[in-house]
Amino acid sequence: MNMHIAQGAPLGAQELARIDAHWRAANYLSVGQIYLMANPLLTQPLLPEHVKPRLLGHWGTTPGLNLLYTHLNRIIAARGQETMYITGPGHGGPGLVANTWLEGTYSEVYPHVSQDERGMGRLFRQFSFPGGIPSHVAPETPGSIHEGGELGYSLSHAYGAALDNPDLLVACVIGDGEAETGPLAASWHSNKFLDPVGDGAVLPILHLNGYKIANPTVLARLSDDELTALLTGYGHKPYLVEGDDPTTVHQLLAATLDAVCDEIAAIQGSARAGELTERPHWPMIVLRTPKGWTGPKQVDGLPVEGTWRAHQVPLSAARDDTDHLAMLADWMRSYRPDELFDANGAPLPEVVGWLPAGQLRMGASPHTNGGRLVRDLELPDFRAYGVKPGPLAEPTRVLGGWVRDVMAANAAYRNFRIVGPDETESNRLGAVLDVTGKAWHARTVDTDLHLDPHGRIMEILSEHTCQGWLEGYLLTGRHGLFSCYEAFVHIVDSMVNQHAKWLKVTRELDWRKPIPSLNYLLTSHVWRQDHNGFSHQDPGFIDHVVNKKADVIRVYLPPDANTLLSVADHCLRSRDYINVMVAGKQPAPTFLDIDEAVAHCTRGLGIWAWAADDGGDPDVVLAAAGDVPTMEVLAAADLLREQLPELRVRVVNVVDLMRLQPQTEHPHGLPDAEYDAIFTTDRPVVFAYHGYPWLIHRLTYRRHGHEHLHVRGYKEEGTTTTPFDMLVRNDMDRFHLVIDVIDRVPGLARKAAGLRQAMVDKRTEHTAYIRQTGQDLPEIRDWTPTRR
Amino acid sequence: MNMHIAQGAPLGAQELARIDAHWRAANYLSVGQIYLMANPLLTQPLLPEHVKPRLLGHWGTTPGLNLLYTHLNRIIAARGQETMYITGPGHGGPGLVANTWLEGTYSEVYPHVSQDERGMGRLFRQFSFPGGIPSHVAPETPGSIHEGGELGYSLSHAYGAALDNPDLLVACVIGDGEAETGPLAASWHSNKFLDPVGDGAVLPILHLNGYKIANPTVLARLSDDELTALLTGYGHKPYLVEGDDPTTVHQLLAATLDAVCDEIAAIQGSARAGELTERPHWPMIVLRTPKGWTGPKQVDGLPVEGTWRAHQVPLSAARDDTDHLAMLADWMRSYRPDELFDANGAPLPEVVGWLPAGQLRMGASPHTNGGRLVRDLELPDFRAYGVKPGPLAEPTRVLGGWVRDVMAANAAYRNFRIVGPDETESNRLGAVLDVTGKAWHARTVDTDLHLDPHGRIMEILSEHTCQGWLEGYLLTGRHGLFSCYEAFVHIVDSMVNQHAKWLKVTRELDWRKPIPSLNYLLTSHVWRQDHNGFSHQDPGFIDHVVNKKADVIRVYLPPDANTLLSVADHCLRSRDYINVMVAGKQPAPTFLDIDEAVAHCTRGLGIWAWAADDGGDPDVVLAAAGDVPTMEVLAAADLLREQLPELRVRVVNVVDLMRLQPQTEHPHGLPDAEYDAIFTTDRPVVFAYHGYPWLIHRLTYRRHGHEHLHVRGYKEEGTTTTPFDMLVRNDMDRFHLVIDVIDRVPGLARKAAGLRQAMVDKRTEHTAYIRQTGQDLPEIRDWTPTRR
Fold it and tell me: Where's the Xylulose 5-phosphate/Fructose 6-phosphate phosphoketolase N-terminal domain (chains A, B) (predicted)?
């Protein structure tokens, strides 16, 4: 079993020369960025003071990235093919910076880094230098939607970008180190979800340069047979480009890119003509070139080019060691800069004159600055989907009706997708299947339902792939929703980190336009995983996201169906945030009518006067955040009203968790005076919270009266049991909340001793009852809230 | 390209009959667990009250799991082959419970669930029932090391278990849903790290039952050609077992298991005779049988068997709907229980008489209760590795010397491994390469270093795979260390959750013996990722782990090389914890001699009287947790001593972060009186912390004097810059700490206004200097702490 080898030598002498010149120029500029802080054109002899004192960067992957960028330029120029470049090996930052400078986009975005000697000097100096630019492909890099600092997400980002962009080619360079990661390994199967009619194409380019920091890569040490089998098994037709002689590799790579672009065009042509009968085997490229190619072959007697020693900075002592300095000068001169740049430092026409122009330049692709392309979603008025307060409703099912109509209203614009690991229906958003299918481009059988090559719901049992697709989709200016089990969204914790970092930096860059928010609907949440048990019970994702920059984080805990509608509408309109919505899918009471819900969500938190009468001066505040805690707090308020009618109880509900933080910490933070008016400064507050209780303390420790705050929440006690037993195990049940009130309101301990004991007995009765019957007490199952 | 098909029909009529009987018995018992709370033997007509009111469980995967368990029993009995069973589809809990009950281990572990009608009644009732057992394969299940609730880790767990157990076969059932996850996809390449000489064998069994909750699986819809290519590409020789006729499948599966066991024996034989010249292509099995096989074919007019509708509970209304109830009775009777159990409910000899005995029963394998096998590590006295206080030392390099000798001292016992994503050397633990190599069983070239098929260092660029290997290794009673970049350990957040949950539950089970702790060395940490930039800067893993049960979590922030030695020794001796050690790899001062280090680590936190004189009554407390914060606090103390000699400054250092919590919250919590004596109750405390500052508040909000606590830490400001600039950007530099002191000590604002301005100016000077030179100010680089 062998990879395909493209035939022919399509480059004439002149084209070959200019391609090689461009590659050398990119390599020269890359090396210059890593090493030099002065003397960029080497017009003077290279001196130690021209070399940066701290040498930071990654050379190893860079010549390969430069080679690919150069050759893709040829394809784009020849075919007018709109193309994006995704750099899996993000450490190769200097390469992308070099290429965008050569094509002119860098100087357009950053005019002070002009295409002349002065600009080149700044280009070199700023790289990995204080006050300059990061060492990786970063938000600061024009043409990028992908940092590649944390490896694994290039290919899912590429697919996300290609969705609904039928004319776009996304060239995705995958490092062979990155290819060892789980997220990357899973994302190969994305090709079963790509629609050759309505979506663009992804061209995976596996860059087998053979080494990580200190080890060979696994894929580089497979036999060609095994590697071919693997890539074929992933559904691709692999082409091999291998070599270490530039001329040979230039010809082979050019022939290969011609071949794969022709094949992609043929696949799309036949699909769009309705002639494709089965899933195409999309072409891909395996590029096997030496790590650190064209760099020093040996340093200090040890081999460097073609080994892991080329990973970072091959001449690490260039400033202090005369031999290293001389080698650096020789290395840079080996690219023959005088053939590449004029005396002023501008790239010569034979180097850059043939490059694509305008938005066809990969650094200038509007898709890579998605905010420039974004179109607001058409959002049907969610108020029309509200349900009556009182009867049980399944909040996510109610939301599903609206989401269906959002999907339908935007169908023509092809700019909205839902992703999730096989849970759209089980999370009760199934109504959306009335108007679109589930993307699927693999075999089907008669009993299948809703599978559709053109479907806009993307389901794969890989949270990583879902997240990567959605990020790629958002970063290129479209909208989406990720519906996920609450416990398992932790699988993408680190991806969320990286996206939050991306957003944080892009918000500081004027030229980066705001993109649609990353919207999570976390359902099947901790309190209603009583059937799946302990492994499925974890509310810690909220804790995880609130560590990120306040500017980009929003957390909503709508207590019922109507508030969920209001929150979801808000999230789908927003930009540049990570919105976390936590909502139940089980039948639950609706507390507010739709107008009350809007008002409540607008405030973000508030007193529910209809639930308890505090006479304007409460003895105790019962607060809740989350649907299940809200129910328990209301039930506790009912119990207190019945049993201790003279006790003035205030009920507070929190939808927008960030309102709890001081204004200094979060833009949504409630002013202290408002906080004090709601929570009081001196009365006990018993707070029932959806997640780990200490988060509420972490958000409020600077608030007045914090010493009177007592929080109940999930304290990591769970198993397969009844819904109410989950509450009892974590001491957040209505009976325990009543006990907490009795224990905390001054003077109540003696007066309400009987009630307290009755509550203890109720908990015991509950435990005995469920062990006998397997169900919660009827009074629990049948409880509904009282509106005063 | 086709999968292999084993030839022959090895089962005689009698053996076929008993195998089928055993399978039917396991299926009967599985269905009984899901549905019944009484009438287990169906001796009475089935009535609604016999059926549980809440039907919770997953039938779909169970018949396949039962089939495999049954056939593996045959192999074990015939060959005396020590075997473990890993259940990737952990939702199939009832199957594993059924099988261990049939083989007798269940009743040995839980005597009240005896092998008779009464015991069977309890077996059924307890499943997914309050006070009973979880619905998944869980810690409560004998013979399990793997829950399978969160999918993706079965295969890496299997490899971890097989390491250094040369006689063990680990049969690993991988669900085709699970196979879509990233962690699982990555772990296929584990076979390049398995030593056929010193390690046991892993037999992956891909169970292609075709469906997830609501969708087909990707792998089930590949062509056979593609699937064969994929599995071959993963390095396996795949055998196909396909069918829906029990007799045919029994014969084919038996023949296949004979074939693969013969092949495994041949590979191991030739490797152990020194005759293996290249990496073997280990056999694996693809089992393609219907989802919910032998269950209802149709329910309510819709197909169930062989579709996703068989995923959970096929007859969801068995208690309320007479048709469903009758179908349930028919379904259970279809297994012919009267041929399987005697009148007392005991399994008949023809069903279980042929099963393996004693520890060869998979439910009784001591490897699956690793604490029974664990041997303490031989730990050389770490004090001998201590360095002199003062000069710069690289803490992880100092640790590396000791780790090398730990590795050597335990070489004969083959019970210690290091895992990490390609970072053992870059994290400066390279000394260990003097005594062992890096596991590698793929191609090598001349320039490779330290690769060794028998190596005990496991490096792959997949944190998931590293974590899975190590968990499998620990759960089977061995020891290990995971060295990882701090930012990227978030990649395994969700795996850590699941392991913490496992530990929490096993600690509540007497029969589960304590296992070695999961030890993380997080280095290349947030403050010294100045070269890699923002994407590599995230200290939030600590926040993540402290949400787990206090009983299983320990976090250490040793400030220097000697304290790191002491902490590491402690962690490697411990059991049943998740230990997080955060330590630097860059040259840094050593503050304490080794004896002081031991004393300090024993206390977990303490006053450093040598660093500042507070006269027993400080005006301010400067506290630090973490190596870089410690340096800044000491430098700030130096500045204050020089500039404000009359100010009484106390310096406190925290190694064991959990000491900060109240005793009620964590077993390591310091008693309030001791806390007060160290931190005071009324003086300002300026606390420099390694991570996100609010964590310190979350740990201390119940402490006296919390309102005087002011914490500096990482507030998500980072980029590629100098080490000191990272501190300045996050306001944790020495100059800012001095400002914080001046702003908080009553009366100092006016008195020290000049100093305050000087500190502001210093920060400005710093910024200008680094932008000019690319390096920190010489006074920063050259600073060393003063011992009074």
Answer: 14-372
